[in-house]
Amino acid sequence: MQFKVLGLAEEEKLDIRINGTQVPIDYITYVQDKNGQNIFEGDPLGPFHLYVIDMNWGTTGREQPLVYGDNRLSVRLIPLERGSVPESFRFVDMVLGVQADDAQGVSNVDLNGYLDDFAIWSRTLSVGEIKAIYDSGQQGIGIKSSKPVSPAAAKIDSGLRVLYEFENAGDLAANSASGGGRPAAQVGPGGALVSVYTNAPKIGKGAADFTQNDATLKVDAKDVGHLIPGPGEAMTVAYWLKSTSQAANHTVWGMSNLPIPSPLYYGNQAHAMFATQWITVADPQQVTLGMIRPGASGNVHSQAKVTDGKWHHIAVTINQDAETAGVSAQLFIDGKAADKLIMAGQLGTVGPSGTVSIEELECYVYMRE
Fold this sequence. Notes:
By secondary structure, the chain is mostly beta strands. It has helices at 127-138, 221-224, and strands spanning 2-6, 13-18, 21-22, 28-33, 48-53, 73-78, 82-86, 93-96, 114-121, 160-164, 185-186, 195-197, 207-209, 217-218, 234-242, 250-256, 274-280, 286-293, 296-302, 312-320, 327-333, 336-343, 347-349, 357-362. The protein has 2 domains: 2-81 and 351-362, no CATH class; 86-348, no CATH class. The strands form 5 sheets. Strands 9, 10, 12, 13, 15, 20, 21 and 22 form an 8-stranded antiparallel sheet that branches. Strands 11-14-8-16-17-18-19 form a 7-stranded antiparallel sheet, with no helix packed on it. The two termini are 20 Å apart.
């Protein structure tokens, strides 16, 4: 007896029974055909597993269950057990300003404003370190020139993965972070590129002008790969923001575990994870961090007025617990700790589990003398 199985995932198994009797694994062989079947070979099929069942059980002293007349074959997909490994809040893509394609995924709201000294660390900065960055920025001193608040504190640039200072109009997205940081890519559709704003930058000679519709920068994927690569990891995002627009909310940055543009979350809830930070300009104004993962979502916001035409410093730390994969985040506004968000861990499955189908069942009878 043989049949073809479509949709069987790696490590999934089938319970095969004939007239209620389970077929011993000794009598089952199967091979995978990754190319499927074309019209010249029969009914067109995608990739499948060919199962062959040997019904000659007498050679091992077993009595096979076939009878003369009608026989019943049943095949059941054995569900995979839930794994014990937490599902990681891991990212592969990040954009500043707005997602390149408004119709898909992370955000549909432009950042209408300016950014300076946009920085990302692959660790949690302490309250003292964030306060030191804010205090230095008030004096026009950049992150690379900042000093730790005490000799015992770690160097502020330790773990610094991304630092866009927006100093050079000819190389706007240059990354001055240590450790081989890579430049961002200009990805604004329709030619809406980020430009250098030199009128009144917060740090140094320039800032990034995101006032054009769909002006966007995409962080290099290799740099993003170092940010929360698994449970037990952490990251910190900090930047200076200046905006006067009161007409709409602003998305400052967005991250996804899928390439951006990525599928909308409501149509891809089993896989999509997002983290976004946006500014709500309605009264009262709010700085919000939102995070979504399969089976859980949450956001935290602080009532802080930051779109008043002045430079404000915004930072957020994101930590993932090594054992539970629970995620906690802390907002900082102008050097002071604001609100905190805690998301429970989400256990992942060992592998996908779905629906399989059986095609082209064939039975052969051999007459032996």
